Amino acid sequence: MKNKKLDTLGKRIANARKDTGLTQSEVADKLNVSFQAVSLWEADETTPTTWNLIELAKLLGVSVSSLVENRGDYIFKTQDHIFDLEHMASFIRHTARAKEMHNTLKALDFAIKAHEGQTRKNTDLPYIYHPLNLACHCFALKIEEDDVVAACLLHDVVEDCGYKKEDLPVDDDIKELVALLSHTKEDNRDEMIKKYFKGISKNNKAALVKCLDRCNNLTTMSWGLSREKIYRYINETETYILPLLTIVKKEPKYYNAAWLLRYQIESMLDIYKRLM
After folding, report:
1. Is 0.85 topped by the overall pTM?
2. d(CA 158, CA 271)
3. Read out DSSP for 34-100?
4. What's the mean pLDDT in 52-76?
5. In sequence order, what are the beta bridge partners of 77?
6. Is residue 198 classed as helix, strand or coil in its secondary structure?
7. CA atoms within 13 A on the CB side of 59
8. Which CATH number fits domain 85-275: 1.10.3080.10, 1.10.3210.10, 2.60.40.10, 1.20.120.1730?
């Protein structure tokens, strides 16, 4: 967080750009606009379109409001990730070995290979951060079950990486968990979503992994969603995810995890709503 007196939109854009070390030409190339367009924005001679302003904020790692609002005080820098990829992978591997979680060890290597080259939406962040975060979250919630952690690591490889559940190097019950957590792309999205969550609701472990997945997405995907998709994400979370926590809580050993996940998810929803 940097304390800067910024009087105009152009000055705020220029200062945020300089903080990133980007030139006006580099910004222009990344936004697919002319160098002159960026120069005119920073000189306050023209104003970026709404779309360019959103993309500019993403590129510069700041919020749209910090560019638009003439508060004359702070610009908040954002970050794509908090934890180190190698550290998370090493933590999962050492914990799995210590707990003799053989499926988790196989799932870890498979997930890293399967997601190689993939990135999180609208970022250069390797996609593998997401499943690694889920597995670490699981351990933080004191859930050390081999099948649950392995499913966290593999939950997207069938849906996003072109694998079939039969390809997974884990026990059959984990393959079924991953299958439940994978949905197909269908024309009628509403019907697909209803069918998808109905299947998950029949398995408390699948419900747990899905809640971990949504909690992580709420905290790490704000930059990758349009306002329309944020509205849809809020509604979908309230309609389908929060009821899953009731199912998770019915299993006594998951009670505390369900309570904490509800707190985390509802807190994030409240932040989204207030900022919308």
Report:
1. no
2. 32
3. -HHHHHHHHTTSS---HHHHHHHHHHHTB-HHHHH---SSEE-B--S-SS-HHHHHHHHHHHHHHTT
4. 77
5. 62
6. helix
7. 22
8. 1.10.3210.10
* SS3 label, residue 139: helix
H helix runs in the chain, sequence order: 9-20, 24-31, 35-42, 50-60, 64-68, 85-98, 102-114, 129-140, 146-154, 157-161, 172-180, 189-200, 204-220, 227-236, 242-249, 255-275
Q: What is d(CA 53, CA 59) in angstroms, rounded to the nearest whole number?
A: 10
Q: For 6-50, how does the pLDDT look when each residue is reduced to its tens digit (9 = 90+)?
A: 478 999 899 889 988 999 999 999 999 999 999 999 999 999 998
The amino acid occupying position 54 is I
Residue 235 identity: N
Q: Does domain 2-75 have CATH number 1.10.260.40?
A: yes
Domain-wise residue ranges, the chain: 2-75, 85-275
